[in-house]
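User: My collaborator sent over this chain with a note saying "see what the structure looks like." That's all I know about it. Can you take a look?
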Amino acid sequence: MNFFDFTRSPQSALSRRVASALQRGALALLATSLGFGLAACTEPVPAIAIGSMRITPQVDSFFVGRTAATNTFLVTLLDAAGQEIKDGRPVTYSSSAPTVFTVESATGIITGKALGTGFLRATASGRFVEAGIKIINPVASIQLLPGDFGFNVGTTRQLIPNLYATDGSTISNRTVTFASSNPAIVSINVGGVVTAVAEGTASITASVEGKSATITATVAKEAVASVRLSPAIAPVQRVGGQLQITALALNNLAQALPGRVTSWISSNPTVATVSTNGVVAALAVGSASITAEIEGRTASLQITVTEIPPIRVTISPDTFQLASGTTRQIIPVVIDSTGRVVQNLNSRQVVWQSSNLAVANVSLTGVVTGTGAGSARLSVTVDGLRSNEIVVQVSQSVTSVTLSPSSTQILRIGGTVQVTATPRDNQGQIVPGKTVSWTSNNPTIASVSNNGFVTALAVGSTSITADVDGVSRSLNVTVTLVPIGTVTYTPSSDTLVAGDVKQYNAVVKDTAGRTLTTLAGRNVSTQSNNTPVATLTSLGVVNAVAQGVAVLVLTVDGVASNDLTITVAQVASVTVTPNPGSVTVGATLQLTAVLRDIAGNVLTTSRAISWSTNSSNVALVSPAGIVTGVTTGQATITAQINGVIGQAIVNVP
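Assistant: Without extra context I'll predict from the sequence alone. Here is the result:
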């Protein structure tokens, strides 16, 4: 290369050569070649501008909790023409997600902090480029499924590697490599598909991120394609019989494969079992499927087991008695063709017969029920073989009782009804000559005699029961009150003093004319046409309130009494006699107080009159108005009612 251009001034040629040398990074070498010292070159040289940046790889993964050994990223600086800049200028690094990963600014070495993603930024001379970062769990262990296994030459098996982190969570999207310890026996491809090449054993290892798991694959001899059973169709077996079945393994060309192990199973061991060498034992009536399995291939044979036929069927006793409506169990004795007694007839066809169903019938299990008076011949057939006949004599018995009347009876107190009980057998026929026992569930409501005569005694409900030989029937009886006929007050008027309380008993009679002694259970109400004057309680008590006239009415079960007219008078004066009176010391004197209204009419009262003395040292007075002389002198005795007083002078000589 020619560094000098003699067509220009030396100074211009020198500048151009210096710039060119700076671009190649050889400033010192250039200065030396021109014979100049470095100190003589004082003009600054600008850095090449970055046109773009490139980072590879653009995405990478790192393990949580680990720091990368080196910076795995390559950052390339390019000028505007796309040429790489190799002037050694520094590149700094930063993380967009420091909680997920951190990066050393100068070296770009990454440390994983938490599972997640972010961006790594590389910066140089104000320009930057980014790469995707993913922080993932490292593989802590591998589980290789299905574990140790065996398969046949020419067959394949898919292996599944399960990857786990230290916390037990599963990991996906990792590259797993597979290897066989002996590919001549077992080969495996990159997808984990194992192929049986030749008979023998080989280890299969799956590896990822320094972790591995190994299983053993055993390759068996030629695969069994099918199994042939002999006999192909099993004859019907009797209970207790045996049948030998032989199983033969075949390849895909239907050629025999000797020396293979056969497994036997019965679908219904209660009907037929099968031994390890294929011997079938018939145990009970029914069907079972016997299956032979050789190296995953199966064949089945249907076995049908029937009972040993009977040769004799007997029932006993020859004759027996039975009441209608009662039962008796008959058990047949069955002998089979081998001479053995048959213990269980559940699998046999058993049919019972009765010559007269109106007298006796027999259930499927041999239970005889008397249905009516008379006799019947009974027999049983087992698997088509009929037994001897026996005779049952059925007598009439009570199975039900009918009552007349049969519906609920509603009686008034004192009312009666005759109830008749009729015992019947299971055919509905009357059973004569039976004694009926009668009872009342509540004799205080209604009683019943020995012949069914019911008497109503009190309000309420009860049941009357007739019992015949332990068979009973009941009749409901409801007792109600007799309707009220009349309610009468006698006398129908009276005069009271205000404040008096007096009992008035109305005479209440029912529609039968009987006088009632109690109104319990009755609807009783009262009415006063002038409650400020007098009121009447439901018990017949009159309260005289104030002067005036009130008409009172008592109503029982809707029947009203006659009017009870009450005149309430006001006391106008009280007269005490004798006045004056005289009593000696220690003797007594009866005083009398006479009440009068304003018209001078004498009044009577049920209340006590209040008596008092003004000098108890001279004379005392009792609540009944009896004066007792105490000492010589004179005393004033006062009688008071409703604030009205009367007085008398009593001398004690």
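A starting point for your reply to your collaborator: The radius of gyration is 64 Å.
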